[in-house]
Amino acid sequence: MPHGRGWRRRRRGRGHGIRRFVEPCLLLLLHRGDTHGYDLLERLPDLGFAEETVDSSVVYRYLRDMEDRGFVASTWDTEGAGPPRRVYRLSPEGDRYLAWWIEGLRQTRVTLDRFLQAYDEHMELEGHTIQIERTADVDNQRSS
Amino acid sequence: MPHGRGWRRRRRGRGHGIRRFVEPCLLLLLHRGDTHGYDLLERLPDLGFAEETVDSSVVYRYLRDMEDRGFVASTWDTEGAGPPRRVYRLSPEGDRYLAWWIEGLRQTRVTLDRFLQAYDEHMELEGHTIQIERTADVDNQRSS
DNA sequence: TACTATATCTGCATATTGCAGATAGCTGTA
DNA sequence: TACAGCTATCTGCAATATGCAGATATAGTA
User: pLDDT digits over B14-32, tens only?
Assistant: First the structure.
């Protein structure tokens, strides 16, 4: 539960949004080709994180975690300028993991659409009711 | 991060899915009319939780929390059979909170669609590449 | 040297959520 | 009466998710 008492007050966590969404994003980016964490971090905004920024710690933690689970493999790249980079490559398991994610996200979209449609339908009915009430009021005013 | 090492192993949390999604569901249900927690719990499956079940503790906690934040108000109903029920009513604040949720969920849908489209486009390109590679192979076989 | 950009990683606090179980009233039945 | 089962609400706990702050290190530039 949000601790904040006020409106929308939520210092940590983004409140709504899809859980663990960075994970499929990283998987897709890695499916396009091998890279290191910092590069992935910079590419994330193109992939859904237009408004919201992802913290670098989250990206690095997911990468390490996915390596532990065998979805990616890393090697050190000491070529070029700057500090060494840990370059990640998607494994066949990671490929299947991405497919599993996509399946889940498609289901999430169905759920989301169904909910938003339920909302719209309810509000439209509500609108009609208000319309009828207003008409009734007008009639009352006329008849009085 | 998921602690489980195996595939899809995730005993708690549903992994993907929309965070706090029960909250807007409860708000919409309450917008349709006042009711108590148990009734809301039973109505939730109609509203997006077709597959997954929501634990009763989650529902009751969100209701109490939203009451603390002024989005709903409760009264005890001791009429009728069974134990007393705490009946919730949406407040004007709760009404605006629902509207805020809807706004966020529409944004989430945009993000989700954009990601899934990026995936589909990438996979289609991938498919084309494979097609070209295969054609090249066939050509090689022919020329050899 | 000091500052900046690149790059990775850790610790902490908070938030989210499933699971287990406590408590209690009412209903039907052996 | 006893007890099983349904209704109804609530608490504690553990696992997970995630933002924030900051540590560490390399290399280029003023």
Answer: 567 899 999 999 999 999 9
Residue at token pair 């529409």: B106
Q: Does the CB of A80 sit below 7 A from strand D?
A: no
- Amino acid B114 reads R
- The answer to whether residue B39 scores a pLDDT higher than 80 is yes
Q: Which SS3 state, helix, strand or coil, does residue A111 take?
A: helix
Q: Is A9 on the interface with B (CB under 8 A)?
A: no
Smallest CA–CA distance from B113 into chain A, residue: A109
Rounded to whole angstroms, how far apart are CA atoms B22 and A52? Answer: 22
What's the mean pLDDT in A90-117? 96
Interface mutation vs chain B, best among A16, A63, A109, A110, most B CBs within 10 Å: A16
Beta carbons within 10 angstroms of residue B119's beta carbon: 22
Q: Is the Cα dihedral B31, A52, B110, A110 positive or negative?
A: negative
Which of A9-18, A47-56, B14-23, B120-129 shows the lowest per-residue confidence on average (mean pLDDT)?
Answer: A9-18
Cβ of residue A20 lies below 7 Å from strand D: yes
What letters, b where the CB count within 10 A reaches 16 and e where it falls short, cover B72-101? bebeeeeeeeeeebbbbebbeebeebbebb
